[in-house]
Every structure is written in structure tokens, then in C-alpha cells.
Amino acid sequence: MLQLKRKSLLYAIYFSPILFLVFLIGCGNNGNLELLQGLRSGADRIEIHTPGGTFNPGDNKVAVYVIRNGEFVELDEGNLWLHMPEMPNMPRMDTDTDLTKNGDRLEGNIYFEMGGGWNGEIIVQTARGQTIDAPIRVQVR
To answer: What is the DSSP letter of 49?
Structure first.
């Protein structure tokens, strides 16, 4: 019995660093998308997801879902357009991306020249031809 406990303890000591590393890798930001913002358009909820749940200056992956009555709506295509207003010594900046179907969501890549507050609109088209749109404001960090 003592031999079995000693062997179990040795295995636990040997494998615990490996299990800890697997845990850390699983918890790290490995490209999983997190909710950035949820918007309402009538009875629909538009969810915008990004890696880490934030936008950063440069290229950003974005995924969009529409939920109606607790169910994902089948989407066809969409567009996300954002702008930063003109400021002293700085021209207005615009960015947009076409969103393409990937399973039950729309995906695209959007580029931000700099951090700050960006305003715009998201427009998606369902597989049944319905257009859903909503104003959006995001903070690029």
C-alpha cells in the first residue's frame, strides 16, 4: 500500500508541471473570439466578437452573429463601416470590411489607423433576404 502511494505521488509530481502547462495554453488567448459588443436592432441582437474582446490599432479579425428569440439567425453577408471624425490637424478616417459567411456567423478583417473612438454602422443580410442594421460605437485601444 505504501509502495502504491509513493508511486502515485511520484506520478503526480512528474505530471503536474505538464498538466499546468496544458492548462495555461488552454486559458491563453489562442484566437478564441470574445464578445466585444452586443447591439439591438428591433427584436434582434447583433453580437460583435473579436480576439480578446477588443479592437486594437492595425488589423483586427471580427465575427458577427445575430440572435433572434434565443436562436442564431442564418446570415448571408454584411458590412461593418466605422469612421473617426475630423479633429484639429487630423483628417477624418474611415475603415470598413465586407463580412462573409462562415458557418453561423459572418467574418471579416478590419484595419484601424489609430486608437480612439470610432462610430459607424453595421449592416447584415439574413439568408432570407432581411436587412438588419444598427449604429455602432467602439473604442480602439
So the answer is: E
Q: Is 32 exposed, middle or buried, given 0-12, 13-18 or 19+ CB atoms closer than 10 A?
A: exposed
- Domain of residue 37, residue span: 33-140
Give the confidence band of 20 by pLDDT, cuts at 50, 70, 90: very low
**Ramachandran sector of residue 69 (left: φ over 0; alpha: ψ -120 to 50; beta: rest):** left
Residues 119 and 63 in one domain: yes
Measure the CA–CA gap between 88 and 124, rounded to whole angstroms. 34
Helix H or strand E encompassing 96: strand 93-102
pTM of the model: 0.75
In this predicted structure, what is the pLDDT of residue 91? 95
> Is the domain of 24 the same as that of 38?
no
Average pLDDT, stretch 133-139? 96
CA distance 48 to 65: 7
Give the count of domains, the chain. Answer: 2
